[in-house]
């Protein structure tokens, strides 16, 4: 009888331990950096991002492949290949107007590119022969936080492919998209060349990425950045 009672108490204790270990909705462990919490304002969040994260991130912009109108009257269908441009570290906030944020990098380089021969900024990319038409000098990225989704995209994940120029293996990347059902190019960037007359080139993109050397910073950035987006979508 005593053995049976002990066995029953042991089983009850194991069951209670399992119940207590379950995650309670709304009480998940926050990945926000220690300086921030769920009540932090947009200004405080952007200030933390500007001091601790943006300058250490490689900023990437992607555009999807697109097909033109179907072939008609002998005119072939046009296909526009997708691509990606990844800029070097050094971005910082230069302007905030409500939920509109301007990121600037005064000594930028393009560290990696997919489809380097066409699309936005292709003249700034070094080709296989080592030549390029223009030298990137100043990059500006325009962010409309109120048009972004705090749910979509990918949380920080380890890049496993060893890219030719960027050597991004071992870096942690987070991806961001627009909100809503209709696809729009909401991410804009502007490049100014070093060569006179320094004519600026503007590009429009579908997706935004931030890539960091460490998982900890990538996760803290992702939590803080999505918190800022969420505040702008209330």
Shape: globular
Strand content: 25-35%
* Helical segment count: 3
What's the average pLDDT? 83
* Estimated radius of gyration: 23 Å
Q: Major sheet, described briefly? A: 6 strands, antiparallel
Describe the structure.
With 234 residues, the protein is α+β, with helices and mostly antiparallel strands. It has one domain (40-69, 77-232). 21% of the residues lie in helices and 28% in strands. The protein contains three helices and 13 strands; from the N terminus they run ααβββββββββββββα. It has helices spanning 2-20, 42-52, 215-232; strands at 58-63, 66-67, 79-80, 83-87, 92-97, 100-105, 110-114, 136-144, 157-158, 172-176, 187-193, 201-205, 207-212. The chain has a six-stranded antiparallel beta sheet. It has a five-stranded antiparallel beta sheet with strand order 5-6-8-11-12, with helices on one face. The protein has a two-stranded antiparallel ribbon with strand order 2-3. A hairpin with a 2-residue loop joins strand 5 and strand 6 (100-105). Helix 2 packs antiparallel against helix 3. The longest helix is centred in the first third of the chain and has 19 residues, at 2-20. The radius of gyration is 23 Å and the shape is globular. The model is unreliable at 12-28 and 164-168 (pLDDT under 50).
Task: Provide a compact summary of the structure.
The protein has one domain (40-69, 77-232). The termini are far apart.
